[in-house]
Amino acid sequence: MEFKKNILGIGAGYVGAPSMVMIAAKCPDYKVTVVDINPQRIAAWNSEELPVYEPGLEELVRQTRGRNLFFSSDVDKEIRENDIIFVCVNTPTKTFGAGAGMAADLQYWEKTARQILENSQSSKIVVEKSTLPIKTAQAMERILSSGKGDITFDVLSNPEFMAEGTAVSDLENPDRVLIGSRETPGGLAARRQLVDIYARWIPPEKIITSNIWSAELSKLVANAFLAQRVSSINSISALCEKADADISEVAYAVGMDSRIGAKFLKAGIGFGGSCFKKDILNLVYLCRFYGLPEVADYWESVVRINEYQQDRFIANVLQSMFNTLAGKKICVLGFAFKADTGDTRESPAIYITRKLLAEHADVVISDPKALANAASDLADEKGTVRYVEDPYEAAAGCHALAVMTDWELYRRLDYRKIYKSMVKPAFIFDGRNILDHRHCFDIGFNVFPIGKPSLTRF
Ligand SMILES: NC(=O)c1ccc[n+]([C@@H]2O[C@H](COP(=O)([O-])OP(=O)(O)OC[C@H]3O[C@@H](n4cnc5c(N)ncnc54)[C@H](O)[C@@H]3O)[C@@H](O)[C@H]2O)c1
Hints:
This protein has helices spanning 16-26, 39-45, 57-64, 75-81, 107-119, 136-144, 167-172, 185-198, 212-243, 247-255, 276-289, 293-320, 348-358, 371-377, 391-395, 408-411, 415-421, 437-443; strands spanning 5-10, 30-35, 69-72, 84-87, 124-128, 153-157, 177-181, 207-211, 329-333, 362-366, 385-387, 400-403, 427-430, 446-448.
């Protein structure tokens, strides 16, 4: 079949693959290919066992794969054959050299830019989908224009705002799609081509355009604002615990103000995931670089409160369990950084588990989707860790439950049955405030929510 457009996604990860799958699903007359340097990842996308769990994704892959969606490891060939290239490679925090622990590590991204240059035999539109520091498009343009000949490259910024766990619905029905371009004739023409793709399923008023630097910066700022709300409510949860207030009641009352809004006001053990911390640190680094230390400090405090919240949680577990965890069994309920994903990158559960092990607790980890990632995250741990998918089996014989992920499943467990199988006194530390605390207390548990009075028998 003759396709109208050929589109390539480089990087078959949590962002690249679902966003390309959505384009393939919505534009059956376009050929969409996804490539990755990791052949195992490509093999998994071509198999029945997809490497990323997202509600609704498997159905879309089944519908499109082999029809107009293809996964391949031949990056060079696909660059040659495609005219619109979405760069979706990872941009983690740098771990070495200048800016270590803060700045974005752009090595994967730069390799891709050079690979595009080396393999291109015709002009291309290159779309930054990865989250990148401001002015990265300029660096990309410089690399791409260093080649000889009359091939041209137009670089667009099209940051992805989807959230893991709701990727499919976010991609299908986004709050907005942002496309930044140069305001040159070439830049504007490239922008129009990208708008045309999204216009296949997204209403025009939701497709917004801007200059390229605004688009790059907007993604960092959006993540910083979201994370800031989490840290804001978590900071108040500490005060609630001291002052006998209830954080859910405070959040409800505050969120009713339409200027504030109710979303993202849930107290818990803090945000995780591969993006929030990385993107804020990146913003902080940029502010320092541009000589704005006050602005940098302001945003850095969002990350500090997140760490503080996790330290508070551990201190609370230790203190409530009579200041010793040595030899006690703790069941960690949930390891993914949030519900409906198997992703554990920067999950608070990693930090909490390591701290529990440092106190010589025995840890049993349960999660419906994230046990393989949990085992790899904790591969270097010497302490006793077991991985048990069934939550009832995981909790049996434990002294405490620590809820780390807001899986719906955990709300509906039979806590009476679990209580019976545990060592007494039995504790619940609800790091996500998702359980019915009064019910658990009535069963016999000592219950420690976040930002609310604890329910104990001591
Ligand atoms: N995960 C999210 O929820 C999310 C949301 C919005 C934006 N983002 C941004 O999107 C980008 C990708 O994130 P992700 O979570 O999908 O990362 P990821 O690690 O899941 O996927 C990145 C993929 O790129 C591949 N890759 C790296 N270098 C490559 C190269 N030179 N050629 C081909 N493939 C290469 C890797 O093998 C990996 O499979 C990041 O910049 C991230 O900040 C992520």
